[in-house]
Amino acid sequence: MTATLTPPAPARAHRDPNVLRWLGAYTSSMLGDNVFYLALSWAAVQAGTPAQAGLVMAASALPRAVLMLGGGVIADRLGPRRVVIGSDAVRCAAVLAVAALLFLTHPGLWPLALLACVFGTVDAVFMPAVGALPARITGKDQLARVQGLRGLAVRAASVVGAPLGGLGVALGGAPAAFALAGALIALSLPLLLSVRVRDLPAAAEGGVTAWADLKAGLRHVRRHRVLGPLMIAIALGDLGFVAPLNVGLTLLADHRGWGAAGMGWILAGFGTGAGAASLLLAARGRLPRAGLLTGCACTAGAVAVGALGFVPGLAAAVGTALLVGLLTGLSGALCGALLQTQADPAYLGRVTAVAGLVSLGLTPLSLPFAAAATGTFGLGPVYAVSAAVCGLGGLVFLAVPALRRAELPG
After folding, report:
1. How far is CA 208 from CA 86, 131, 205, 344, 410, in A?
2. What Cα–Cα distance (Å) separates residue 392 from each residue in 143, 277, 290, 305?
3. I need a labelling partner for 340 at 20 to 30 A (CA). Which of 7, 96, 198, 309 fits?
4. 250-257 long-range Cβ contacts below 8 angstroms, 24+ apart
5. Is the predicted pLDDT of residue 5 greater than 60, yes or no?
6. Residue 381: is its pLDDT beyond 90?
């Protein structure tokens, strides 16, 4: 009698050395990003007026938005691992070059603006490739956990990156902070080179040209019964969420007399809630009714966003922000996991690019309108309208049957 040997089940994401190497590389790269943007803002303020510094900080947004869809095509054509490695290498070289330039001379704003444009251009390729890479390093049943781990990495990088950047500025000014950012991005390269990727089947629809591939990717999103409405939900959710947690929070803290310290406590509450949501997804993995849960979390999170504009005390604001972070962090992480599991892996770079363009292209438009409306109508109505828009994203999940019934394997 012969025994049949069953191959061992793949390791869960948090125990898979391949996933952990990718996670370490991603965390290091995100840390470098956070230090970079702090160094860029510091150097720009030192070299020019506040208005000029604002233009430098915004210089990366335009190329990132304009080139994002093309970046998705490149990620799918060349392979996401190769694109991520190339992107990090270019960003590292550019940051270290500017660090050396600032150390040797005082060139003014032009190298900072050029560096911001380079970062935005590279981000247009880097972001879709990062979104497409998890499907090539782990099984489909682990993608939800990987998304949760990725969320934890983002939160950790945002918490640790600012103090690291501040330390770099304190020790050696902007050149030292830029050098630190470059070193952190460089650390991701050997880790990425050690990550093993698997080949995926070619896309069922495509062409010999990049333009044909782009059109095929857009058709894949438009015709997919989950991805199409999911993009609408992401757009509405982000459009209603970004303004209250950016310009709205600054105005709220100033209006209530909480100051910068109070705003910091509110942001800490939000970050704690969002981190807990990512941890939950990383631990749980499989969610049979993920679409329904996402819709409920987004709708309840919209109510919490609206309540944030009316709370009178700082303690209540911190508690409300924690709830906002937990609910919107959970819905955001689930949206990312659904993108990973619902899209054909061969289209993941282009699908991620569409999601990034929907979010990064639309949400900044809400900021000037929110600031102007606050001056005219007050904080309460602006938070209420933002909450209503965010809530529409949750209603899309609840109203579209295919989206509501979407599951996350695990």
Report:
1. 23, 23, 11, 19, 36
2. 27, 21, 18, 13
3. 7
4. 251/371, 251/374, 251/379, 252/308, 252/309, 252/317, 252/379, 255/379, 256/312, 256/314, 256/317
5. no
6. no
Evaluate whether 111 touches 51 at the Cβ level (below 8 Å).
no
- What are the tokens at 185? 């991005």
Mean pLDDT of 231-236: 92
Q: Which amino acid is located at 408 in the chain? A: L
Measured distance between the N- and C-terminal CA atoms of the chain, rounded to whole angstroms: 34
**Do 281 and 168 contact (CB within 8 A), yes or no?**
no
Q: What is the pTM of this model?
A: 0.87
Predicted local distance difference test score (pLDDT) of residue 365: 66
Distance CA 320, CA 391 (A): 16
Classified as helix, coil or strand, 364 is helix
Both tokens of 266, joined, read 């509110």
Check if the beta carbon of residue 320 is closer than 8 Å to that of residue 201.
Answer: no
Residue 287 bridge partners (DSSP) = 408
- What pLDDT was estimated at residue 8? 42
Whether residue 302 contacts residue 394, with contact meaning beta carbons closer than 8 Å, is answered with yes
Q: Is the pLDDT of residue 261 over 50?
A: yes
Alpha helices, H only, 194-258? 210-223, 227-245, 247-256
Average pLDDT, the chain: 86
- The answer, yes or no, to whether residue 28 has pLDDT greater than 90, is yes
